[in-house]
Amino acid sequence: MSAVIEASGISKIYQMGEVEVHALRGVDLTVEDGEFISIMGASGSGKSTLMNVLGCLDHPTSGEYLLNGRDVSELNPNEFAEVRNTRIGFVFQVFNLLPRTTALDNVELPLLYDRTRRIKDPRAEAVAALERVGLADRITHEPNQLSGGERQRVAIARALVNRPSIILADEPTGNLDSVMSLEIMELFGELNAQGITIIIVTHEHDIAEVTRRIIEMKDGAIIRDAVNVGGQAK
Amino acid sequence: MRLRNLLKIALKSLTRNRMRSLLTSLGVIIGVGAVIVMVAIGQGAQADIEAQITSLGANMVMIFPGSSWSRGVSHGAGSQNRLTLDDADAIRERATLVTAVSTEVRVNAQIIGGDSNWNTSIQGVDPEYQEIRDWYTVSGEFFTERDVRAKAKVAVLGKTVADNLFPGSDPVGERIRIRNTPFKVVGVLEAKGQSAYGSDRDDVVMMPSTTALYRLAGGRYISRIFASAVSIEASEAAEEELTAILREEHNLEPGEEDDFRVRSQAEFLETATETSRVMTLLLGAVAAVSLVVGGIGNMNIMLVSVTERTREIGIRLAVGARGSDVLVQFLTEAVVLALVGGTVGILLAVGVSVFLDRVVGMTSIISPAIVALAFCFSGAVGVFFGYYPARKAARLNPIDALRYE
């Protein structure tokens, strides 16, 4: 196994007026290819900040972050955008789908911004991604015509469509009821079984229990990092 | 990033948010439309005034007796009216810059004809008068040079007089009486409508100048001399020439003041044009205000849609759009809206203008320069305020843009 994520000494300091908020205090984390990880912690423990840094949505204040062996902290904004576009799929708690836009158009979006390859038929790829998340019959629906679980599936399809090696999900089940939550976790399990590295943030134990490795954070630092034997086997 | 993709994204975004697109372009539509219509009405009014003045006879030069108009003391009020038929003959003989000359003798008199009578202004003129004032008969004939020489008792009626004395019938061939003298009606003049000063120009009876002077006015002096300059450009030179001829004719010493006044239609035209220019300026100011108001409305709707759009930008950045991708998209949207809004605004303005022209009867003239100005200004406002907030948002971290409330 090779490491897809090697982060060392990651810290993030927010300036809130006069006060400095240390959201992350020197986090070290290594993630191997194909892992299925959950990050837990109370709110304010820094887990979302860590996800944003890992997802290249935000820059760390200091520390080194190697993604697939490449130092991401040295990238310029355009290269950063390319990483977000092709290497990482990000799933949000609030879905963040474009309103008044069909599932298909939402999923197609990352393909339209992809400069790394010539995409012959973006629609076909988007349809394929929606089929992978079990929404083949919902492709022309707009977000407000879909249930929460379906919206999250659209968001996952969007994260999948550019074939990233990693999917990061920040409380993906936070807005869903328990039945939908389990369905979504099942979907993540399937995707992980297909070889995609998956990291999710959650504060629910039964959600975390599905994953194979559970990391606990408190006050911007990792306090526990253990293999979960009961998790879904790869 | 392929440009085609960006265009696709921008157009999709526009059609997806129809209400927002409509409101945004409405700002441009109103900005462009209002300005064009305003100025079109102003220029229409200006053209109306000019046309009316030209309808008096384009190259006309007029000579008035000096005494009754002049404020000069030496020839002041009460001094004799010194224009004569001989003056007109002298001009006919010697002036080179005028083509037609006519005298005018004005008398007010009661006219009896048909079963009625009517008080009107009688103008004794020469046949050239028709040409000078661009005023011809619609029925019958104008009197001739022979009638002038013969002091013939013939008359041409203005429309108002004809309608009052002979309602519903053609008065040509009828008899009328003026101060107990019988006249034969030989023609009816075309209607000229109101003058620029509000008087009815059709309330008139024309007859040979000699007839009016010797049979009715009983005097020596005539009221005015009209002449046509060879061209509008020659009006001024013609004025000078006529002045020189009349000074000689009146035996005025050098240094002595003129006892007559020469004015050309070109001068009137200038005055009137000046008046309407002030009006256009006024309308232009109103237009400028509506341009600014439209611009501000346009700006507001653009800025208001920013909250929603900042989130949208965050989403786009999060899935891998570059800042420049987002900017090209927003710029495209803004340009498309400005173009569509501007075009609709122009079409609307043309529609309103045609409606005013055809249906309301208000002359309105659309000026291409104003169309271009309004289009460019409103377009620029739309593009700037569509682009500028987007530029701010595109510089944010994706996560900050997503969190924007």
How would you describe what is shown here?
The complex is a heterodimer of chains A (234) and B (405). Chain A has 234 residues and is an alpha/beta fold. Chain A has a single domain, classed as 3-Layer(aba) Sandwich (Rossmann fold). Chain A has seven helices and ten strands. Chain B has two domains: 3-52 and 271-403, no CATH class; 83-229, no CATH class. Chain B has 405 residues and is α+β, with helices and mostly antiparallel strands. The longest helix of chain B has 40 residues, at 265-304. Chain B has a six-stranded mixed barrel. Helices cover 56% and strands 17% of the residues of chain B. Chain B contains 13 helices and ten strands.
Task: Please supply descriptive tags for the structure shown above.
heterodimer; A: 234 residues; alpha/beta; Rossmann fold; six-stranded mixed beta sheet; globular; B: alpha+beta; six-stranded mixed β-barrel; 13 helices; 10 strands
**Derived structural class of chain B:** alpha+beta
Helix content of chain A: 25-40%
Shape of chain A: globular
What value does the Rg of chain A take, in angstroms? Answer: 17 Å
Number of DSSP-assigned strands of chain A: 10
Question: Beta-strand percentage of chain A?
Answer: 25-35%
Multimerization status: heterodimer
> What is the CATH topology descriptor of chain A?
Rossmann fold
Instruction: List the domain count of chain A as a whole number.
Output: 1
Termini distance of chain A?
13 Å
The description of the largest β-sheet of chain A is: 6 strands, mixed
- SS-derived structural category of chain A: alpha/beta
* Count of helix runs of chain A: 7
Helix content of chain B: 55-70%
Major beta sheet, strand line-up of chain B: 2-3-8-5-7-6
Radius of gyration of chain B: 34 Å
Q: Give the uncertain stretches of chain B in residue-range form.
A: none
CATH architecture of chain A: 3-Layer(aba) Sandwich
Instruction: Indicate the proportion of strand residues of chain B.
Output: 15-25%
